[in-house]
Amino acid sequence: MVAVENKIENDDRSLVESAAARMRESLIVGELSPGQKLSEHQVAAQFGISRNTLREVFRLLTSQRLLTYIPNRGVFVAAPDEAAVIDIYRVRAVIQTGAIRAATRGHPALAKMRRLSERGREISLTGDWRKVGTNNMEFHRAMVEICDSPRLSTCFDLVLAELRLVFGQLEDTAHLHEPYLDLNASLITVLDAGDLKTANSQLEAYLIKSERAVLAALQRASRHM
Amino acid sequence: MVAVENKIENDDRSLVESAAARMRESLIVGELSPGQKLSEHQVAAQFGISRNTLREVFRLLTSQRLLTYIPNRGVFVAAPDEAAVIDIYRVRAVIQTGAIRAATRGHPALAKMRRLSERGREISLTGDWRKVGTNNMEFHRAMVEICDSPRLSTCFDLVLAELRLVFGQLEDTAHLHEPYLDLNASLITVLDAGDLKTANSQLEAYLIKSERAVLAALQRASRHM
DNA sequence: GCATATTTGTCCGTATGTATA
DNA sequence: CTATACATACGGACAAATATG
Fold first, then answer.
1. Are B87 and B209 in contact, with CB atoms under 8 Å apart?
2. Which of A90, B12, B50, B134 could link B149 by a cystine bridge, Cβ 3.0 to 4.6 Å?
3. Nucleotide nearest B45 (Cα, C1')
4. Whole-angstrom Cα distance, residue B192 to residue B211?
5. Is A75 exposed, middle or buried (0-12, 13-18, 19+ CB in 10 A)?
6. DSSP assigned state of B12
7. CA gap B75, B217 in Å, rounded
8. Does B87 touch chain A (CB under 8 A)?
9. Predicted confidence (pLDDT) per residue in B137-185, tens digit
10. What torsion do the CA atoms of B98, B101, B104, B109 make, to the nearest 10 degrees?
């Protein structure tokens, strides 16, 4: 049902943390379908950990909104609906416009963004759209780093992970990221020039466009079920 | 050492959730000192729950930054330092200015803010500064509700809880809240008038002032130890 | 609507490793 | 350096809630 044989060097962390990381990855790449029930017994066996330890993992991922707890019924893979998507983009708007407002010329995060933007173009040539998507997320993650705020970055990571959960529900992640390569490139050019006003309007345009695309794809997906 | 005999009607939730709520309250009101080690055995006995259950509670509160995990050493009450305070106010600035930018006349949250502001004045007359502080937090919490974003509100609640942890370290919470009654009242007046520009500059003034006061108090407190 | 099987919620005992006096 | 204390993790147990036939 699910691939869990990745024992990829997680020994530096505690068992519950490494297991949480593994399950987090499974969730993000879409190996588990949203709404799916996760049996304690079964998952514990798959991950090779005890039920007690697994319950700690569940608590962690539930607090990150990747899993959903229903009392006396167990945990389920979170299934972000349209309301969730709308809310996620609301969070993004607030945090990312805040980031741009905080942008100062020469900030390390800007260089990182430029690097990621260029790398995104390279990846797009290979046609690996999943990687393009991941790269795009890293680009926006770097944008938030302009704030130099670990707490804002953590909060942002949470909603991004949730968003990837949504992408996992969709089939065609291709055109969900491709059109934004140009926008991202333009954004850093404007930012480097210090034109925060234009940068913010471009960002808002991006967010609206992206939100609409995700919502439309989500509605298509839910209709096909 | 710590009062834990409050079995105040927590039966509707699961054991771990009610225990987490109780411990959360203990942390926020300052019953436990920052940096203090929390022995699994001891705390489990005090709360009347098993160590397994307690560990789930610890995971929850750790993800909320109220506790700190040190591998193989256990959990400790989080001790937010100056860097944390600075970061907290950075988050507040981004989220709360975002909230004000989203303010529309007649939004329910504005009415709530007005109610809380007036209530704050009443409480201040009694001289119960702890309650004034709590009221002030609720005021700002209501401000974030303008966004109509559960995720932003949750994120904001997290940093507010952390901030209360800081207050727990200080003795004189009195003048940490009193001067802001006027500012809050003024803020809603300006917001009701729809003058977002002025509202934001007043908010920024508040945040800077408050941050400086907290930082100063924190430095005084750390010197006295 | 009932009886039964399954699963969650919670606890205990215990073995092992890690940190500290 | 040894001993003690403690965190980490496991497996088993049982009641209560839920799902199933």
1. no
2. A90
3. C11
4. 26
5. buried
6. T
7. 26
8. yes
9. 999 999 999 999 999 999 999 999 999 999 888 876 667 777 789 999 9
10. 30
Place of tokens 């066996």: A45
Among chain B residues, the shortest Cα distance to A155 is held by B155
Number of other CB atoms surrounding residue A12 within 10 Å: 8
* Cα angle, residue B84 at apex, residues B83 and B89 outer, rounded to 5°: 100
| Amino acid found at B54 | L
Strands of A74-77's sheet in order across: A37-38, A74-77, A67-70
| CB contact (8 A) between residue A149 and residue B87 | yes
Closest CA to B169 of B91, B223, B133, B222: B222
CB A156 within 8 A of CB A144: yes
Residues shown for chain B: 225
Q: How many residues does chain A have?
A: 225
Distance from C-alpha of B40 to C-alpha of B162, rounded to nearest angstrom = 22
Residues 6-65 of B with CB under 7 A from strand D: 37-41, 51-52, 55
* Beta partners for residue B69, in sequence order: B75
DSSP structural state of residue A146 = G
Task: Please check whether residue B20 is in contact with residue B60, taking contact to mean a CB–CB distance below 8 angstroms.
Answer: yes
Task: Count CB atoms within 10 A of the CB of residue A166.
Answer: 24
The separation between the first and the last C-alpha atoms of chain B, rounded to the nearest angstrom, is 20
Q: What angle do CA A161, A164, A170 make, to 5 degrees?
A: 160
Tell me the domains of chain A and their CATH numbers.
2-77 (1.10.10.10), 82-223 (1.20.120.530)
* Predicted pLDDT at A18: 95
Write out the two tokens for B210: 């408050």
- For residue B72, what are the contacts with CB-CB under 8 A and spacing of at least 6? none
Residue A210 above 80 pLDDT?
yes
Amino acid A67 reads L
Cα–Cα distance for residue pair B149/B154, rounded to 1 Å: 9
d(CA B135, CA B121): 10
A47-76: pLDDT as tens digits:
999 999 999 999 999 999 999 999 999 999
CA distances from B125 to B89, B111, B129, B159, B178 (A): 28, 22, 10, 28, 10
pLDDT tens figures, A10-61: 455 789 999 999 999 999 988 999 999 999 999 999 999 999 999 999 999 9
How far does the CA of residue B200 sit from the closest CA of chain A (Å)? 13
B73 CB contact with strand C at below 7 Å:
yes
